[in-house]
UniProtKB/TrEMBL annotation, chain A:
This is Calcium and integrin binding family member 3. Residues 132-167 form the EF-hand domain. Signal peptide: none annotated. PANTHER family: CALCIUM AND INTEGRIN BINDING FAMILY MEMBER 2 (PTHR45791), CALCIUM AND INTEGRIN-BINDING FAMILY MEMBER 3 (PTHR45791:SF7). The keyword NADP does not apply.
TrEMBL record, chain B:
This is Transmembrane channel-like protein. The keyword Lyase does not apply. It is found in: Membrane. It comes from Oncorhynchus mykiss. One of its GO terms (cellular component) is plasma membrane. Residues 793-820 form a coiled coil. The keyword Transmembrane helix applies. Residues 588-703 form the TMC domain.
Amino acid sequence: MLHLQDCTFFTRKEILRLFDRYRDLAPQLVPLDYTDQPDVRLPYELIGSMPELKDNPFRQRIAEVFSEDGEGNMTLDDFLDMFSVLSEMAPRDLKAYYAFKIYDFNNDDFLCKSDLEKTLNKLTRNELTEDEVRMVCEKVIDEADLDNDGRLSLEDFQHMIVRAPDFLSTFHIRI
Amino acid sequence: RAKEKERKKERDRKRRRNVARRASSARKEGKELEDRPGREERRGRKKRDKEGKGKGGEDERQEEVKNDTVAKTLKNFSNENTRKLEQKEIEVVGEEDGDTEEKRKNGRSEKGGKREDNGRGETVEKKQKKKRVETSAEHESSEEEEDEEEKVGEEKPEVLSPEELEKLKEEVDERKKLISTLRGKPWPMRKKLLTLRESHEFVEKYEGALGKGKSRKLYAYKVMMLKKWMKFQRDFENFKTACVPWEMKIKEIESHFGSSVASYFIFLRWMYGINMILFGLTFGLVMVPEALMGRPYGSMPRKTVPRADEANAMDFAVLWDFGGYAQYSVLFYGYYNSQRAIGWLKFRMPLSYFLVGVGTVAYSYMVVIRTMARNANEDGGGDNNSFNFSWKMFTSWDYLIGNPETADNKFASITTSFKEAILEEQESRKDDNIHLTRFLRVLANFLVLCCLAGSGYLIYFVVRRSQKFALEGLESHSWWERNEVNMVMSLLGMFCPMLFDVISALENYHPRIALQWQLGRIFALFLGNLYTFIIALMDEINLKREEEEVLKLNMTIWEASLYNGTLGVNSTAPPITVHPADIPRGPCWETMVGQEFVRLIVSDTMTTYITLLIGDFLRAVLVRFLNYCWCWDLEAGFPSYSEFDVSGNVLGLIFNQGMIWMGAFYAPCLPALNVLRLHVSMYLQCWAVMCCNVPQERVFKASGSNNFYMAMLLVILFLSTLPAIYTIVTIPPSFDCGPFSGKSRMFDVIQETLESDFPAWFGKVFSYASNPGLVLPFLLLMVLAIYYLQSTSKSYKQANLELKKKLQTQNEENKKKTKMAALKAAMDLEEAQKAWSEAPRQQRNNNASQQSYTGEKNTVTGHLVSSFVFVWYLKI
């Protein structure tokens, strides 16, 4: 417990609450007793059905980024980690790092055009025409790409996102 | 210890022998390595690392002359190296899966890049390796330390030299730092846990080894205390978060309505907290002491209901108006006695009253300004418009949303915002018929001004009329006539914003700008109303003071007659006891002001709640149930459900707070009332918002406006303390009520305290300090300091702007350069093609120059490759 408090931004009560939430997802899978640290992971289908994530267009990415196996199946630790990063207390840089990973759909450590297109289509539910999508993506790269390699690296992304007025207020999930 | 040294020496000797054997080969390696081009230096170092011992030995041999300790540290160093290497190898093995994956990826990217030559691929690979090493560097280094420490540990703590101790201490501190910053590291949980456990073990193991003898004990004690303190802090933190109320309620609202609606409720909670503290101040330092230790009810005229009102002093209607018993209680200024010290505690009541009044204002200023500063810090200075699209893309989704309907709205609003931005980007919107819009805007502003003036006049008129009614006696008038002022103010506050909303439709502004105008207008309306109200009150105060003068005269006559009457009968009788209820008394304008404010707050609260019930709840019920038998779809069509009006509600809250600040000095019960009001409205509005409002269609940014609201709060705070301070400073207090009765000004209480409660020298110092000759230079100094700070901040801003500009120009230059390079590459490509086509002929013609030709071909292919790379690069 103490260790978990050191590793996350949560207090004891919050961790217990999170554990309850985790357990509520699949009471038959998750044991009540975590003293001997059983290796339990919940499948993405369960994680993604949480009301906090259910309507989020990036829920699959979030689950993938924070799960250890990269496929959205989460252990309790991953689960805590996820909500710790998305909590209010997490610093801007940490949030920026994970936001970058979430938007990096193909895991190549760069936000390239296809990533941006996917992001945009998820945000607007494919309601923009192809031309519009392309234009917006070009604009984004044009704005944020500082080293001119035609894609956004983590540094570019951080440089851009830390100046955004809304980032901290929108990139968090309360639980 | 000697043995230890012996052993060490032997080990060293052995190693040196070993080293000598390898030295020659190592040196060769080294030379070779040095010859290699810089690019491969990394690999070279690795190889050298592989020869770790060899290298270390080499070093050692050079240092042979130096003493043993140096040799030892060197040995440590080399050992470290080898261990590092081993670790790396282990890690490489451990991460083989990841490694192969990465390699595959590399391969892919190379394929994507097609023309990238081998060398580049290699560097990429290396870079990746380097990165991996870097990412795990911290972890690694910590383990290294541990290894080293184990060694040191073997040699028993007593042997530690001061430097080593220093080092150890540093490492322990580093570990501790790591523990405290671990939560901010972007590592997966498992790794975090592992590192944490290791660091904890490490710290535990070696913390005791630090220090010697006594100091060691002390150190251990210190460490223990530190641990206890940490635990206490953590518990306190837990406790603090457990104390924050309504967390779940707000969370639920957040998930349904997004962050903007929730920001209102967070603001409400914040307000509640402030009012709690104000309430604690007034309750603890003013109301409770007076109620417990002051003279009891009925002992003095100011503490008794006058005979004329006694009959209906307990009627609900009177109490509701805060007359009768409520008026003569601790709730209002007039009840307090001017006795300097009360009770067995010798509590200085008047002083406390005054200081609490000042403290309320001071505390409010402090909190508001501090919050503003914090908000400004968190903003990150996102004022430039250079990342318009990026921000839209990466920050427009509100992760708090957990409700399908809100999510739908959010998707729609994001789409429209993108479309708008695209439109704006494509063409700066052309104004069709600019004259018409201008005319309409002027007209709209004119109408709004008319509204403002009309509402101001209405309030003035009503207040004057109510004074007339008050003079004639309230009983002869109907309920409406008695409550006219408050009702008119509340109704104006309710309907004028709607009117403004209609008017703003004329103006055809962008919604965000329209919102700002709307807010500004409502602000002006409220402010105007409040100030007209205050001016009318001032008139009334003057009236009351005239009345008071007349009464004072009458009073002396009455007293004289009383005494004369008794003196005639019996000159030695004990002083006559007239029941306090029968003694004539002044009008006590302070209580009147307090009453007005309390009534205003109550009626304002009532209107808010009633509007909520009728406007939201009843509407929702009607829409919901009439929809079954109506000719059009009520839910989607005209009345529909109402949206939650964030800005209007926030403004209402701010003005309410302004009234509290204004009236709190004359009615100590106001903060308590406000706490009650906020508490109820928290529950009521939470319920209303969840059951009868729909998510907003157009969601505005919640943040950024935070400071806007705060700035409004600050302005209101200033404007509301202004009249309060004015009355305190300029108008003499009533002669027979309140804690300052009998003084010529309220602040005389400070003077009095200084004279009688503090030693003489303190009063002298104070009088010197308040001398204008000292105060003026001090003020001047402050002004100068402000000026200086402002100018420096301006220059910083300038520098910031310039840097930004520089960055931009550099960016553009870079782009240009790449373009130029690409152009050049394309030309090269053409040339190369030409050369290519010419080449065979050349070959046929000139067999002898084959050698040179091959060289040329090589260069040509080189050009080709590079130009392709450039073209590909450009495309991306």
